[in-house]
Amino acid sequence: MTKRCEDVKQRCAWVSADPDYVAYHDFEWGRPKHDSQELFELLCLEGMQAGLSWITILKRRSSFREAFDHFDPKRMSAYSEQKIEHLMKNKGIIRNRLKIKAMITNAQMYLALEKQQSFSDFLWSFTGGTPIIHHYKEAEAIPASSKASLLMSKALKQRGFKFVGETICYAFMQASGMVNDHETGCFCYSQCLTTQDKAN
């Protein structure tokens, strides 16, 4: 059920009382993003989340940005083994060698894709270029993946991207506003609809 916080606003049930989580939900999650590098950062962080909670990643986001050159694909694509070892000693991020290497690979694949088309246009093509609007009243009804996220996952994997399974892709689509999965009772639900109208 959509829950009510101290400020009386109704929010999605997954939001805790943590101020960082509340701010993320209120101002970022589900808001349509179209900047390619911003989407690349989000996809990397969603991949880092695999097996962990999002709040774990959110609390380390500033450290991730500093460690990975603000997710500049050109810089990341050139990371050496020495750089990887340096990252593995950074206590401010998730020190998982497979995930770190995957992010470097994804930076290389991003640059290759950008030579053909905008990374943003490529990703948004799986929703027809506009957000998919859902009408879920309760969190339990929200799926962990969809046909669109499966297609996105397959397409990214075919291009060499790593840690982009259909569940990760769906979480990414929710966070980037490609789908509006705010519960209908959440105050952000209608705000995201307004954001979509402005974008159109």
Fraction in helix: 40-55%
Give a count of the beta strands, DSSP E runs of length 2 or more: 4
End-to-end separation: 31 Å
Question: Which runs of at least 5 residues are low in confidence (pLDDT < 50)?
Answer: none
Strand order of the largest sheet: 1-2
Shape: globular
Largest beta-sheet characterization: 2 strands, antiparallel
In angstroms, what is the radius of gyration? 17 Å
Helix/strand order: EEHHHHHHHHEHHEH
What class do helices, strands and sheet pairing give? mainly alpha
Number of helices: 11
What does the average pLDDT come to? Answer: 93
Strand content: under 5%
Report on this structure:
The protein is mainly α and 200 residues long. Helices cover 54% and strands 4% of the residues. The protein has helices at 19-27, 36-49, 54-58, 61-67, 73-77, 81-88, 97-114, 119-124, 147-158, 166-175, 187-199; strands spanning 3-4, 10-11, 132-133, 179-180. It has a two-stranded antiparallel ribbon. The protein has a two-stranded parallel sheet with strand order 3-4. The mean pLDDT is 93.
Draw up the topology in text.
Blueprint: E1 3-4, E2 10-11, H1 19-27, H2 36-49, H3 54-58, H4 61-67, H5 73-77, H6 81-88, H7 97-114, H8 119-124, E3 132-133, H9 147-158, H10 166-175, E4 179-180, H11 187-199
Helix pairs in contact: 2-7, 2-10, 9-10
Quick synopsis:
The protein has 200 residues and is mainly α. The chain has helices spanning 19-27, 36-49, 54-58, 61-67, 73-77, 81-88, 97-114, 119-124, 147-158, 166-175, 187-199; strands spanning 3-4, 10-11, 132-133, 179-180. Strands 1-2 form a two-stranded antiparallel sheet. The chain has a two-stranded parallel sheet with strand order 3-4.
